[in-house]
């Protein structure tokens, strides 16, 4: 049973682990790599225990770097208060 | 003074500190990087004298001495130990930059820490990426930095959760709670609308004319107890119900004295020594089994308050909650009982089994038969107990 459903935007990129991470209740981190996300993997595991979470994300956001970088530029500038 | 002379005895206090559970970041203070399934008697703190208060976070611990000194150990990779560097520390070590400041209260969050001095100053360090340090930015700090926002106020308490913090202060006319850090699940209680993150403290709504006794935070939850025994909760919902963006009073015909929070449950102690639970454990234990043991439904309110029974018919004097486990100290002899998730040995029962109801932890020592006062403190996946024995030496 998945411990939780977590949106990708709530996960943190960890340079050292080269993974998106989210706190695990054991004290360690749930982890998933960009490569895993690209092949549609949605389970992020904790290396220290049996728990895992389901990652909510758009597969298209991780398929090819170009698309992700092009999209924001097409949008209207957003005013920042 | 006369009283003491007449008794003609010296009352000496002896203190024991025990720890168990997840230990791979050095958080158990054993000097080892391994989980412990049985309680370990900790000697690494004895050179610092008695410990008056502990706070356990994601994988680090803050200890306070009666003299206001601060010791920290465990995971330090976000700066949460306040040692001026971002590394783990296996042994309790003094927070040098707070020396000379009398710290009376501290809170350890997932990866950040908060400290309050006797003069009402508040300091934070550790992970600041959600604004949870309250310095107006999203920067992490490896030494405690005073929160200038409260410079002219007298802060009573700070409570650190996973990605947010709460500060409680007594104002001239009313008590105030402030929230900062991630507010995505409503844990700051600062707006009826969804808030992402704030890095400057904002007033938590709904406490007008309420006298606050204490605030607490863990996971994406927040809670407060008022002086007249009312319980308020806000933040992430406990059972798939909508998140609570502003504090809600838990309606129950009970007077509460302490609340502790896990990541999916809250434990509350009443003035009569009864324990109630909100929510449930959220790891891979079948839902049916979670309700089977020692639980009695009290109300079918939005939040279901369940009475936790089976404390060997004795009252409970203190409670603690890890991310997915619970612990209590019973009134009769200071016994410690635990239940919940046990995969890392955080229940201290000698194995890695989960428990749906309270079980007595065996704290074996030659002194363990003497009457004692126990206090229990839970981190995410680990547990600490301080036991104080009063030794009478008569002449």
Q: Tell the overall outline of chain A.
A: globular
Order of helical and strand elements of chain A: EEEEHEEH
Number of helices of chain A: 2
Shape of chain B: globular
Radius of gyration of chain A, CA atoms, in whole angstroms: 15 Å
Walk me through the structure.
Chain A: Residues 2-58 form the DPH-type MB domain. The complex is a heterodimer of chains A (81) and B (395). Chain A has 81 residues and is an alpha+beta fold. Chain A has 2 helices and 6 strands; from the N terminus they run ββββαββα. Chain A has helices at 34-38, 65-74; strands at 5-7, 12-14, 19-23, 29-32, 43-45, 52-56. A 3-stranded mixed β-sheet of chain A has the order 1-6-5, with no helix packed on it. Chain A has a 3-stranded antiparallel β-sheet with strand order 2-3-4. In chain A, strand 5 (43-45) and strand 6 (52-56) form a beta hairpin. Chain A is globular, with a radius of gyration of 15 Å. The N and C termini of chain A lie far apart (42 Å). Mean pLDDT of chain A is 85; it is low at 66-81. In chain B, 3% of the residues lie in helices and 46% in strands. Chain B has 2 helices and 29 strands. In chain B, the strands form 7 sheets. In chain B, strands 19-20-21-23-22 form a 5-stranded antiparallel β-sheet, with no helix packed on it. Chain B has a 4-stranded antiparallel β-sheet with strand order 2-1-29-28. Chain B has a 4-stranded antiparallel β-sheet with strand order 3-4-5-6, with no helix packed on it. At the A-B interface, loops of A face loops of B.
Summary, kept brief:
The complex is a heterodimer of chains A (81) and B (395). Chain A contains 2 helices and 6 strands; from the N terminus they run ββββαββα. Chain A is of the alpha+beta class.
């Amino acid at each position: 049973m998945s411990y939780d459903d977590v949106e990708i935007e709530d996960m943190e990129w960890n340079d050292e682990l080269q993974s998106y991470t989210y706190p695990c209740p054991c004290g360690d981190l749930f982890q998933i790599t960009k490569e895993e996300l690209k092949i549609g993997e949605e389970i992020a595991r904790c290396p220290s225990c049996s728990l895992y979470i389901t990652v909510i994300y758009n597969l298209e956001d991780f398929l090819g770097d170009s698309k992700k970088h092009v999209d924001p530029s097409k949008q209207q500038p957003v005013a920042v208060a | 003074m006369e009283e003491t002379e007449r008794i003609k005895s010296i009352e000496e206090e002896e203190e024991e500190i025990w720890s168990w559970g997840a230990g791979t970041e050095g958080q158990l203070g054993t000097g080892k990087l391994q989980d412990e399934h049985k309680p370990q008697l900790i000697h690494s703190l004895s050179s610092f004298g008695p410990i008056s208060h502990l706070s356990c976070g994601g994988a680090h611990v803050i200890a306070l001495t009666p003299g206001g000194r601060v010791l920290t150990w465990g995971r330090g990779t976000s700066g949460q130990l306040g040692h001026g560097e971002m590394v783990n520390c296996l042994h309790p070590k003094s927070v040098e930059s707070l020396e000379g400041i009398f710290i009376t209260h501290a809170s350890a969050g997932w990866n950040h820490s908060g400290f309050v001095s006797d003069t009402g100053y508040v300091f934070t360090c550790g992970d600041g990426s959600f604004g949870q340090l309250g310095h107006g930015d999203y920067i992490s700090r490896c030494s405690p930095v005073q929160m200038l926002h409260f410079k002219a106020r007298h802060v009573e308490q700070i409570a650190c959760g996973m990605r947010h913090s709460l500060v409680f202060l007594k104002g001239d006319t009313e008590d105030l709670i402030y929230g900062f850090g991630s507010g995505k699940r409503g844990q700051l209680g600062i707006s009826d609308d969804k808030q992402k993150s704030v890095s400057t403290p904002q007033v938590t709504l709904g406490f007008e004319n309420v006298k606050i006794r204490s605030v607490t935070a863990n996971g994406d939850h927040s809670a407060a107890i008022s002086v007249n025994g009312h319980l308020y909760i806000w933040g992430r919902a406990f059972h798939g119900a909508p998140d609570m963006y502003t504090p809600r009073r838990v309606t129950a015909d009970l007077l509460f004295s302490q609340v502790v929070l896990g990541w999916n449950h809250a434990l509350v102690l009443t003035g009569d020594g009864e324990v109630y639970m909100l929510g449930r454990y959220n790891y891979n234990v079948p839902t049916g089994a979670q309700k089977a043991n020692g639980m009695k439904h009290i109300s079918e309110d939005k939040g279901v308050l369940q009475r936790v029974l089976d404390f060997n018919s004795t009252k409970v004097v203190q409670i603690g909650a890890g991310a997915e486990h619970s612990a209590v100290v019973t009134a009769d002899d200071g016994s410690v009982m635990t239940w919940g998730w046990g995969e890392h040995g955080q229940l201290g029962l000698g194995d890695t089994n989960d428990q749906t109801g309270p079980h007595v932890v065996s704290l074996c020592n030659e002194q363990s038969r003497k009457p004692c006062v126990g206090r229990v403190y839970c981190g995410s996946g680990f547990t600490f107990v301080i036991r104080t024995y009063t030794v009478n030496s008569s002449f």
